[in-house]
Amino acid sequence: MTEKQFMDQLNASLKKLSTEEKQDILQDYQEHFAIGKAEGKTEEQIADALGSPNKIARELLAMYHLEKAETNVTAGNMFRAVWAGIGLGFFNLIIVLGPFIALLAVVAAGWVIGLAFSLSPLLVLINVVIYPGSFVLFDLFASIALCGLGLLITIGMYHLTNILTRGFIRYLKLNTSLVKGGLTND
């Protein structure tokens, strides 16, 4: 593969990045080719040593999405980071997607329970409106207790969601570094 072919393929694979970031990356790889040529290597040897432009782009995009998810935690950024992590290899489909779905289910269940408990006094009021003769004072006190418990669960879920999100981003970073070539001992 020639330098032009390598750079064109890398440029096409990095289309999701901003123009400025893409130019910085392309300039770095042009420097790799310039240094290799100065050492007497052919363009094909340099391209072979660098690896596949598509694989390089996948790794760079995964790191980009992870950094974006870390700095601005939104559901969209998290999903993009997870998909970028999965895109690094087929094995990541199990290693990344499985824990992500499990954490998502736990967090969703916690939020649903907290909100359902918090709204339980409304159910008592609706019951009184629909069936006026069925009011029992115990129902009111039980729903108030459930509402308090629901508020505590909701507050706990807010903090747990933040902790799990940061932890999962760290997990994705570890996974990405392992896929890119293993951990290095600094």
Question: What does this molecule look like?
Answer:
This protein is an all-alpha fold. It folds into 2 domains: 1-51, no CATH class; 65-181. It contains 8 helices and no strands. The chain has helices at 3-13, 19-38, 43-50, 53-71, 75-86, 92-118, 120-130, 137-181. The longest helix is centred in the last third of the chain and has 45 residues, at 137-181. It starts with a helix and ends in a 5-residue tail after the last helix. The mean pLDDT is 85.
What is the element string, with H for helices and E for strands?
A: HHHHHHHH
Q: What is Rg?
A: 26 Å
Number of domains: 2
Q: What is the helical fraction, as a range of percent?
A: over 70%
Query: What summary fits the major beta sheet?
Result: none
Please give the count of helices.
8
Total strands: the figure is 0
- Indicate the low-confidence ranges by residue numbers: none
Shape: rod-shaped
Query: What is the overall pLDDT average?
Result: 85
Distance between the termini: 34 Å
β-sheet strand percentage: under 5%
Protein name: DUF1700 domain-containing protein
Keywords: Membrane, Transmembrane, Transmembrane helix
Pfam family, one: HAAS
Transmembrane segments: 81-104, 111-130, 136-160
